[in-house]
Amino acid sequence: MFRRKTYVLLLALVMGALLAGCGGSGDGGGAESGALTSPLIATSPEGPVGTEMSTQDASRFPFTVSSISPASGVVGVPINASITAAFSKGIDGSSVTAKTFTLRSGTIPVRGAVTYSSQTASFTPSSPLPVETKFWVTISATVRDVSGNTLPCDFMWSFKTSSSRDTTVPTVGSTVPANGAKNVAGNRDISATFSEAMASTSITTSTFTLKQGTTPVLGAVIYYAGQNATFLPKVRLAPNTTFTAMINRNATDVAGNHLPSNKVWQFTTGGSIDTTAPTVISTFPANAAKISSLKKITATFSEPMMSRTVTTEEFTVKLGASRITGTVTYADRTMTFTPLHPLPACRDFTALITTDLRDEAGTRLAQPFSWHFSTGLAPVFLGSAQSFAVLAYSTVTNTALRTTVNGDVGVSPGTAVTGFPPGAVNGVIHAGDSVAARAKLALTTAYNDAAGRTCHPVAVAGNLGGQTLYPGLYKSTSSLAISSGDLTLDARGDANAVFIFEMASTFTMTSGRQIILSGGAKAGNVYWQVGSSATLGSTSVFKGNILAYTSITLNTGATVDGRLLASNGAVTLDGNTINRP
């Protein structure tokens, strides 16, 4: 066991180092233990939205890649797509070339043209990409911003093509101000959100215009942060005046598809300017929340924000003092941070939004905004034992006619599986064969994994009946029972939530007692690591996977949604139904 715990610690340190650096190129996920599994499983009650920090607490960060298209790891990218990357600052165009922005399949480079516009660079392949092929994109650390700052390291990500071209035309989904809006502040920018990523070189002052009557309004156009384009008037708009904004059909998506028609909308200014500071009104995860399978972190604002200020400098996520590598996008008043790699399980993270973020009138957040969240338990990796509903070390015995096992039955190194028939097995019986032997080895690993978990344990003892418990790790230094009242396991809406119960000795469930799953909890994500033997009473209803060090006994009529896995003893059945998840 000591050697295993040492291995787990070393793996955790390696994973932390990888995530703390410039980000590796792996697609795998983190886990609390050495189990080779990627989902991150946990949940808990949501806390308040967050807390504001003093200005001096805000950290400053270097020139970075803020968003990418296609996203990292995505499958099904059209073969005629271009590849784009948005940066946290304006880029030095001379540093973005075919040598610093590359695409390859394996070791074979893809020929194409590299273009840039303000804070966005694009790679357009010279011909359609091969179908159903994985590609790697690399942006060299030598790419610079306009001040001469370089990227902290090479930025890499991958995607896989589909078997078809992209022929879907893009559309404009929403605009700010909205069509027909009144009393618009004269110091606001004008923005539009598209249905998909656009070719940055097609979003210019020629395709995105603003007019007062027939007179063009001078300004600049920025396409940035995913799917947003912004027109920045050079001067404050005249009060009490109607303006017409237009994005013409020459704007194209990254596959070259044009807008189906010109997008035109109008708004009327009022007599005032907007000086109200924006605020963060909600976040996901909420402050102090634990969450499973976390793929995105979001913050929603009280008003539309200036998309050109939405970057990885203004929205960061940290594990301790180390930044998590990721991209940032903005749409519909919501900023989204997408980690480039899955976040490790059972870790505490801090998200920060700085005061450099501004609303469309240019007003900054009054103070930096930060909040904290955690990832929780990863599931116990069952490996080759996954297909088994019943697995024992010495014997599997059924003593009644009406026993049904929905899943495989196995024993190893023993060879005795008795009572089938008359019992029914809707699966395969592996009596002392190589399949059972591999499953038994996997069970040993899984048992040690479950017994070795240390992620924020909650101490429990004696009877669990009559309680409602939430996802997490529960630890007993003696025995556990469900003997007075039923036990409810509430996932609080998280279908991937994990419950692990560690006990040093026995587990007993008395006659007629039940485990009730609520809030989306699943039997397959509940694990009972039993230090000796487990006994389920007559007509009891059990949910979860029992990983017993010694034996498992079911009395007459007990039913199980889960698995019965005995590492060093027998499994005994008596008129039971076992449904493998």
- Main sheet properties: 12 strands, parallel
Roughly how many Å is the radius of gyration?
A: 29 Å
Overall 3D shape: elongated
Count of helical stretches: 2
User: What portion of residues belong to β-strands?
Assistant: 35-45%
What low-confidence regions span 5 or more consecutive residues with pLDDT below 50?
1-21, 23-61
Proportion of helical residues: under 10%
Please, could you describe this protein's structure?
There is one protein chain. With 581 residues, the protein is mainly beta. It has 2 helices and 51 strands. A hairpin with a 3-residue loop joins strand 16 and strand 17. It is elongated and about 90 Å long. The chain starts with a helix and ends with a strand.
What's the layout of helices and strands?
Elements: H1 2-20, E1 51-52, E2 65-69, E3 75-77, E4 83-87, E5 101-105, E6 108-109, E7 112-117, E8 120-125, E9 134-139, E10 155-161, E11 172-176, E12 181-184, E13 190-194, E14 208-212, E15 215-216, E16 219-224, E17 228-233, E18 242-247, E19 263-269, E20 280-284, E21 289-291, E22 297-301, E23 315-319, E24 322-323, E25 326-331, E26 334-339, E27 348-353, E28 369-375, E29 388-392, E30 395-398, E31 404-406, E32 408-411, E33 416-418, E34 424-425, E35 429-431, H2 434-451, E36 458-459, E37 462-463, E38 468-469, E39 472-476, E40 480-482, E41 487-490, E42 499-503, E43 507-509, E44 515-518, E45 526-530, E46 534-536, E47 541-548, E48 552-554, E49 559-566, E50 571-573, E51 577-579
Primary descriptors:
single chain; 581 residues; mainly beta; twelve-stranded parallel sheet; eight-stranded parallel sheet; 2 helices; elongated
